[in-house]
Design goal:
- The chain has 309 residues and is an alpha/beta fold.
- It contains nine helices and twelve strands.
- The strands form three sheets. The protein has a five-stranded mixed beta sheet with strand order 3-2-1-4-7. A five-stranded mixed beta sheet has the order 10-9-8-11-12, with helices on both faces.
- A hairpin with a 5-residue loop joins strand 2 and strand 3.
- Helix 1 crosses helix 2, helix 3 packs across helix 9 and helix 6 packs across helix 7.
- The longest helix is centred in the last third of the chain and has 25 residues.
- The chain is globular and about 60 Å long.
- The termini are close together.
Length: 309
């Protein structure tokens, strides 16, 4: 039987699998990672099982397990969809892991795990309602309310990135094509590739998102304009979520969250679009950075075990 005082989180990505063990208070006891066996679902399951069992042998206890994964588990079929690690799509990941690990496994997508991590003992610890987003290859989101991860009947809670960019300017319509089949989705503007694409459209220059931030800091006017456009669009996107949810904190993770100027400039811009005469919700950078996903997976597994009694 799993000991809920030992929680193991698994962060399953397209290039690496990371395992982290936490004690009751959230102290890191062990961390291991290995390359993801790309293209092989069976070997991916085996790699996860091997990492979990190695950790348990080293720590001498049987742990609860939570897994953060790309994409989402379909409520209709129970199988993974929309994962960029395409060999996982169409597979019942949580059920198959329960078989190889011989215990219940809690699973959620990476943005949900970020939200749970940061609401539990991260930048938004103690806040009643937290909205967290990953600004990276995509712009997934997750919501935690009173310590519990919200998961709705359609498995799309927090998926703000596939709504249209709100209050569009004339030059923003119809917007870039999105892989979901629509045009102008928030993700096409606010992801890392979306930021780089905007700079390319405006200047003809290829430059990655993190290099744009460096260039703007160094005084490059073209990069500065691109970032100002990004900040305005991020403010509009977040304002729409805040007008519906009114969270006590918004947390940013992912590579773009490392752009320091966002935390000064975006809240001022949000206030313009907010249906309120005050803007009290802080915009925070994820405290645990790249570790938030795997920490959130560990918290998820522990919470699920305790709910089962």
């Amino acid at each position: 039987m799993a000991d809920s005082s030992l929680a193991i989180g698994v962060d399953l990505g397209g290039t690496k699998i990371e395992v982290l063990a936490l004690d009751e208070g959230g102290r890191e006891l062990l961390r291991r990672r290995r390359p993801t066996p790309r293209g092989s679902y069976e070997r991916t399951l085996e790699a996860i099982a091997a990492l979990v069992h190695e950790a348990e042998r080293e720590l001498g206890r049987h742990a609860t397990v939570g897994v953060g994964h790309p994409g989402a588990l379909s409520p209709a079929s129970g199988r993974l969809r929309n994962a960029n690690a395409t060999w996982l799509n169409g597979r019942a990941l949580d059920r198959d892991l329960e078989v190889v690990l011989e215990r219940p496994v809690a699973a959620a997508n990476d943005a949900d795990c970020l939200a749970l991590s940061e609401a539990t003992d991260g930048a938004a610890a103690g806040k009643p309602v937290v909205f967290a987003v990953i600004l990276g290859t995509g712009v997934g989101g997750g919501i935690v309310a009173h310590g519990r991860l919200l998961q709705g009947p359609n498995a799309i809670t927090g998926e703000w990135g596939h709504n249209p960019l709100p209050w569009p300017a004339a030059g923003e319509l119809p917007g870039p094509a999105c892989y979901c089949g629509k045009e102008g989705c928030i993700e096409t503007w606010l992801s890392g590739p979306g930021l780089a694409a905007e700079h390319r459209r405006r200047t003809g220059v290829e430059r990655e998102a993190h290099l744009l931030a460096d260039a703007a800091l160094a005084g490059d006017p073209a990069a500065t304009t691109t970032l100002e456009l990004y900040e305005d669009r991020l403010a509009r996107g977040l304002a729409t979520v805040m007008n519906v949810l009114d969270p006590h904190a918004v947390v940013l993770g992912g590579g773009i969250s490392n752009i320091a100027r966002l935390y000064e400039r975006v809240p001022v811009r949000i206030a313009r679009w907010l249906f309120s005469d005050t803007m009290r919700t802080p915009l925070l950078q994820a405290r645990h950075g790249d570790s938030s996903g795997v920490r959130g997976a560990a918290w998820l597994g522990r919470a699920a075990a305790r709910e089962r009694g």
